[in-house]
């Protein structure tokens, strides 16, 4: 999967990329992060004055977010080994050339970082270096333009986003989102209650996504001298769904252990799954020296990115499977009406693809007018919610057969998946609906 991401956001999210260099918030909108710290045990930024606390600059309507205390991670014994591991494996090459072109290390530049998301994504961060150096670097490597925004020093980008220095706090996002929080000023919103870090945690995230398989999801990361841990929780709505998901993950882990090096097996065995009601709980605990922990983090990141993307893609394919068969049932009802009226059984003419362009890894909202074609009306079919797939009916010239198709591109790489049901009227007047055929369903 190829995920495009603005350079400013990449710089600010460099710490997240330590563990998952190919994964960004835009590629998994479920924002898995951890439950809020208990009262009295939580913290915001380490000693940050109120005007520069990133937790006071969240999008007001945000239902998912992340809080990363990079300074805590830097102080953990595992940090130096993580950087050494990245250099050894080439993982650093996933990041833009900050060090080469700007003399800046993203690993040393960020102190505290908070991401909040609703219809926009807003990144707020405190830095360990002057913000001016970061802005100048972004001008150089991201072709940003020096600017002022709401009277503050800023860098503007061609996509309408902006990076702003608010006196020690760097804000990045769509101009509308940044302008809104600047004019509102510091304010502790509801989301901030979920993003307070416990004293032993460096990462926490939480979300109630509007789409995807989860009702809510959370995770927390901790780094100690002899233990690195990540705890994940995902509420899947029902106990049965959670149980089935846990079984599938267990089966996948068992397959992953086959024919792999002992180090990979050791990491896989460090992941423990359990089910608590409708919630799947996964705990990854990497014990041992800092070097052992770093190696385990790298292995877990590589395995985790692949597994999560695959699971999310599979959950999204349920849309295509359901809707294609719903269209087929609608056409069956249309033919039943012809039979009841004593007419020859003929499928309606072909219906155009809706939407015309295949969505590329995002949900697209169609308009009611997109479904006005007589054949969509004959099949009693339309979709009012955003959709991951384009749908089409292709009728044969003699109108005795038809194909119902869905096209998708979940990873946005330009290669499409197809889901197809063929229907035909036999010589004896029967209507046959063939089984669903899938081609590259996870594309």
Properties at a glance:
443 residues, alpha+beta, six-stranded antiparallel β-sheet, 26% strand, twelve-stranded antiparallel β-sheet
Explain this structure to me?
It contains twelve helices and 18 strands. The chain folds into two domains: 7-315, no CATH class; 317-439. A hairpin with a 4-residue loop joins strand 5 and strand 6 (161-165). It has helices at 7-12, 14-19, 70-75, 78-89, 98-102, 106-109, 131-142, 175-184, 239-256, 262-269, 290-340, 374-378; strands spanning 64-69, 110-117, 121-127, 145-149, 152-156, 161-165, 169-174, 201-207, 216-224, 227-235, 271-276, 279-287, 351-354, 389-395, 401-408, 417-425, 431-433, 437-439. The strands form two sheets. The protein has a twelve-stranded antiparallel sheet. Strands 13, 14, 15, 16, 17 and 18 form a six-stranded antiparallel sheet that branches. Helix 4 packs across helix 11 and helix 10 (262-269) packs across helix 11. The protein is of the alpha+beta class.
